[in-house]
Amino acid sequence: MKTKTKIAAIILPAVLLFFLLFLLAGHSNWSLLNPKGPIAQQERNLMVVGISLMLIVVVPVFILLFTFAFKYREGNKAKYAPNQRHSTKFQLLLWAIPTVIILILAVINWKSTHQLDPFKPLISNVKPITIQVVSLPWKWLFIYPEQNIATVNFVEFPQTTPVNFQLTSDAAMNSFWIPQLGGQMYAMAGMSTQLHLMASAPGSFAGSAAEISGQGFSGMKFTAKAVTNSDFDSWVKSVQARRTPLGLAEYNKLAAPSSNNPPAFYSSTDKNLYNNIIMKYMMPTQGIQ
Ligand SMILES: [Cu+2]
């Protein structure tokens, strides 16, 4: 190998490696690489493992691309072999590496797809909390059936407690996403989906609508706040103490289109509100009119 080829063969992988390390450094805005809960952590690891395995093919391909272009450039006296047709060794290598990588990826993905099924409750000694989520145009409504309160564009729950989100929509289909806690889940009218998440420590996490749903979509953001158990209890009491019940009239106002809604808090809700919203699309005469 000539000196220049050697230099290229060292610099190229070094640049790629540096870029990869920069990506993995966990820049604060890159929430997917900065997980704050067990589900998001496993999903991040899965992404890193998958990308690393694929780089085993991608990095050599790019190194070879530049090496060949440099070696067989005009004016260089590289060996000219126009009758070269077949190399069993090379063919074996060419097929074996991707086959092994795909087998490893298949096993890892099969296992983690079942392990990280969003509908599967998390294993924990702590009693889970249920929060019902309704996608409205263009805001998120959170109903706490156990605490009998509701909020808009703000959701609070205790840390290290499994959160059982039940999701539906009283409008177009949408996607509920708290990137630092886990992947998205669809919210669809006339049915209820589930998403099980948990925060490992107190903190505020950005939540959004990950599916374009119309005019006010960009303002359909919320804060997900994880707090200690005692902080959660006192927060629930403070919301219950407000005199702002979420009756049918208030709900219908909320369900009407509006954009960039600030957080709102309701001291009580109708026990069947969530089910009625679903039934509205199943049996129109039984649900909310
Ligand atoms: Cu799809």
Secondary-structure topology with pairs:
Elements: H1 3-24, H2 38-71, H3 88-115, E1 129-136, E2 139-144, E3 149-152, E4 154-158, E5 163-169, E6 174-177, E7 185-187, E8 193-197, E9 203-209, E10 222-227, H4 229-241, H5 248-255, E11 264-266, H6 273-282
Parallel strand pairs: 1-5, 4-10
Antiparallel strand pairs: 1-2, 2-3, 3-11, 5-8, 6-7, 6-9, 9-10
Helix pairs in contact: 1-2, 2-3
The protein binds copper (II) ion.
Question: How is this structure best described in words?
Answer:
With 289 residues, this protein is of the alpha+beta class. Helix content is 40%, strand content 20%. The strands form two sheets. A six-stranded mixed β-sheet has the order 8-5-1-2-3-11. Strands 4-10-9-6-7 form a five-stranded mixed β-sheet. Helix 1 (3-24) packs antiparallel against helix 2 and helix 2 runs antiparallel to helix 3 (88-115). It is elongated, with a radius of gyration of 26 Å. The structure holds copper (II) ion (CU).
Bound ligands, each once: copper (II) ion
Q: Report Rg.
A: 26 Å
Total helical segments: 6
What are the low-pLDDT stretches, counting only 5+ consecutive residues below 50? none
What is the 3D form?
elongated
Question: Which structural class do the helices and strands define?
Answer: alpha+beta
The count of DSSP E runs of length 2 or more, i.e. the number of strands, is 11
Give the N-terminus to C-terminus distance in angstroms: 78 Å
What does the largest sheet look like?
A: 6 strands, mixed
